[in-house]
Amino acid sequence: AQRVTQPEKLLSVFKGAPVELKCNYSYSGSPELFWYVQYSRQRLQLLLRHISRESIKGFTADLNKGETSFHLKKPFAQEEDSAMYYCAISSGSGSRLTFGEGTQLTVNP
Amino acid sequence: NAGVMQNPRHLVRRRGQEARLRCSPMKGHSHVYWYRQLPEEGLKFMVYLQKENIIDESGMPKERFSAEFPKEGPSILRIQQVVRGDSAAYFCASSSRQGAYEQYFGPGTRLTVT
To answer: Do A95 and B33 touch (CB under 8 A)?
Structure first.
């Protein structure tokens, strides 16, 4: 069964500091991995997906199959990055998403 | 495009009543997914539907829960004889094609069972 683990429920950094949100997964096939973000009073939205290999709002995430990780990183955090971040994996059929429990990131001024 | 719409945003039901949650997908989307988020937990998949078909209901509780996505109108998640443990946020997402390429989420319906 697929599973996503986000070990940190809360993460607090200062503006300008690097930030890394951890995500580990277990899945027997070839995974598709995503990061979703939910800003205060807004709906959940896709931040990035590993197949795109893109950088969104300065965030990047690299899939490490050896460590089964998909950590989200940003070199210089901004206050507007404060939000709830969810790591998610898609099933073999490519339909359902399995989410981690989320990490609440707070960027302090 | 107004995005995925869900109503009501908040729903209060007494134990034993029925709850009906509605989801209108984005224009042009024919794939709908329902997720449930219990307090202090992540979102958990419940069911995946296309127009008039249930594709994957492996996350649905076996009793009291049902879902439909008719040819016309919104998708409905129905919970019969609600219990306190059904209190949660229920999110709907839609996509234009099968797969998790991009699922667009609605604002959610917060169900409270008293």
So the answer is: yes
Burial label for B57, CB within 10 Å (0-12, 13-18, 19+), is: middle
Q: pLDDT tens across B73-90, in order?
A: 999 999 999 999 999 999
Paired residues of A72 in beta bridges: A21, A61
Unique residue bearing structure tokens 């443990």: B85
| Cβ(A33)–Cβ(A89) below 8 Å | yes
CA distance A88 to chain B (A): 10
Nearest-CA distance from B22 to chain A in Å? Answer: 16
Please report residues of B whose CB lies closer than 8 A to that of A102. Answer: 42
Q: Which two tokens stand for residue B105?
A: 């989420």
What DSSP character marks residue A81? G
For residue A8, pLDDT beyond 70: yes
> How many CB pairs lie under 8 A apart between chains A and B?
62
Whether the CB of A20 is below 8 Å from some CB of chain B: the reply is: no
Structure-derived torsion over alpha carbons of residues B42, A47, A14, A16, reported in degrees to the nearest 10:
170
Residue B22 token pair: 């509605």
Band of the pLDDT at A51, cuts 50, 70, 90?
confident
The nearest CA of chain B is from the CA of A16 a distance in Å of: 28
Q: What is the spatial distance between Cα A93 and Cα A39, in angstroms, rounded to a whole number? A: 29
